[in-house]
Amino acid sequence: MKKIEDGKEFYDNIEIPEELSMRVKKTIAEHPKKEERSEKKLMYIGRYFTAAAAAAVVCFTAALNTSEVFAKEAGELPIIGGLARVLTIRSYESHENNVNLAVRVPAVEVGDNVQDENKEATGEMLQEMTVEQLAEQKEFTGDINAEIERIVDEFVKKAEQDFAEYKEAFFATGGTEEEWADREMDVQADYEVKYQKGSVLSMVLQLNEAWVSAYGEQYYYNLDLSTNRELTLKDVLGEDYENIANEAILAQMYERAESEGYVYWGVTDTESDIDMGGFMGVNEETNFYLDENGNPVVCFAKYEVGPGYMGVQEFEIVR
Amino acid sequence: MLNKKCKTKCRIRGNRKRCGGKGGENVKRDKYDIVVEHILDHQAKSYRIAYSYVSEKEAALDIVQNAICRALENYRNLRNVEAVQSWYYRILVNEAIQYIRKQKREISCEPQNMKEEVYVEHAYEPGEEVYRKVCELPEQMKTVVMLHYFEQMTLKEIAEVTGANVNTVKTRLYTALKRLRTMVEIEDGKENG
Fold first, then answer.
1. Which domain covers residue A293, as residue numbers?
2. A9 lies in a domain?
3. Would residue A160 count as lying in a domain?
4. B36-69 pLDDT, tens per residue?
């Protein structure tokens, strides 16, 4: 006579590996309460930017993926051809205390110099501007630049702090100096100009930290310098933008689910309703950049619409 | 689907506004501590559950680790701290299922990497045989049987973990038991949940 409860005895005796407790503690140590930091950021962005902050994400297996963005040598596009240009205002690398820093901070420049260079290169003046218009433009881009600098500085500072805390937890949970020696943390900040034409500029700021886990943040800037505001999907796709974008995104999700076996919570995976995010349709705060054709590419952070191993998910909406 | 998700969005916005308030912060601090405490107290259980999905030590450890990450990245989404158990199991079960699905995909892409399954005739003790058969059940049925009989959760709790309603859970349990019975002629000990 066998009963299903007999299985419980075997189940209860499943051997618990020694390293479990160490790994649990370590993982917890790597995730300190960080609500203060991220909430401040969310609030700030909510107030000043139409692009919402990318969700904070962590995935243990994705350390290799994170270098991809940087491998493309971001930001090396020609800068001529618009009302603004993007410059690297600060760039540094350092290797101290097992932390490898590689930082490039961009800034958007506007004004006579940019216009003159543009005229020289293309032979035409894009737009005559009054002193007031130029002042407005400078104020707008100045705010953006200050924000970018602040985001990068905070990210680097937080990463170094995280690493110090991790080090502490590492020794507290029985790690040795010897084991510690080959542990390194990579912190990268970089940007990529995705599109630049006339008064429109699209740029992505990418921040990564990689050690035991990989953590990345992306910020999307789509600037219109003729109106001095950030573009939303509605500006790009028109009044019916929600339907257009949702339809295109859903179609691509189903396609990728079929071809890549990807899982999109609430879309291709309705069975395991996990109540944390998933695709909920686009809105005016949805993250996107403009690709070289000027088409919006909607971006979802890791874990925003599907499991972490899928990384950042991008969907081009053809206009 | 879209409507329901929008609620999540609003909740996030609500938090954003509140974030200056001291009261809200205290609640959140507690939340973090509660989640951490729960993770620490239930690590062995979590491991056993994960192990039952993958039958492999390293994979089970990975799943537990991923679930902790997930929980601590999202603990603010935990609305009711009393539901921390079902909330955390839900994350764990999901991570386990995602892990299996991902692995299946990788294996089907690279057939040369497929492990050759060696069939060994074990001298199973009755408990082990039953356990193995439970592990062989399809994911959803396995989840229900495991949580109910091994973790001794009520069907209502299981419904919270799996996000299915109680009737669905019941159906899954009975189908699973029926299947198990044909597999190992188990004498079903429990009639109701």
1. 232-319
2. no
3. yes
4. 989 999 999 999 999 999 988 999 999 999 999 9
CB atoms within 10 A of CB A180: 12
Contact at CB, A31 and B186, closer than 8 angstroms: no
pLDDT given for residue A30 in this prediction: 81
Residue A59 and residue A202 in one domain:
yes
Q: How far apart are CA B70 and CA B63, in angstroms?
A: 10
Q: Is the dihedral of CA A305, B159, B4, A53 positive or negative?
A: negative
> Does A31 touch chain B if contact means CB atoms closer than 8 Å?
yes
Q: How many domains does chain A have?
A: 2
- Rounded to two decimals, the pTM is 0.49
Q: Residue A147 and residue A108: Cα distance in Å, rounded?
A: 11
Residues 36-95 of B with CB under 8 A from A: 36, 39-40, 43-44, 47-48, 51-52, 57, 61-62, 64-66, 68-70, 72-74, 76-77, 90-91, 93-94
**Residues A25 and A124 placed together within one structural domain of the fold:** yes
Query: Residue A279 domain-assigned?
Result: yes
Task: Give the single-character DSSP code of B147.
Answer: I
Q: Does A60 lie at the interface with B, CB-CB under 8 angstroms?
A: yes
- A13, part of any domain: no
Indicate the average pLDDT of chain B.
74
The per-residue pLDDT for A171 is 82
pLDDT beyond 90 at A198:
no
Q: Which of A106, A93, A101, A215 is nearest to A160 (CA)?
A: A101
Beta-strand relationship, A296-300 and A288-290: antiparallel
Pick the CATH number of B22-114 from 1.10.1740.10, 3.30.450.20, 1.10.1060.10, 3.30.70.260: 1.10.1740.10
Q: Where are the domains of chain B?
A: 22-114, 121-193
Q: Is there a single domain that holds both residue A91 and residue A211?
A: yes
**Interval B134-149 mean pLDDT:** 90
Dihedral-angle region of residue A82 (phi above 0 means left; psi in -120 to 50 means alpha; beta otherwise): beta
B122 contact A CB<8A? no
Reply yes or no on whether the pLDDT at B107 is more than 90: no
Closest CA to B39 of B13, B11, B70, B3: B70
Over residues B140-147, the mean pLDDT reads 91
What CATH class does B121-193 carry? Answer: mainly alpha
Are B68 and A31 in contact (CB < 8 Å)?
yes
**Model confidence over A242-276: pLDDT tens digits?**
999 999 999 999 999 888 878 887 787 665 544 55
pLDDT score at B184: 63
Q: What is the DSSP letter of A55?
A: P
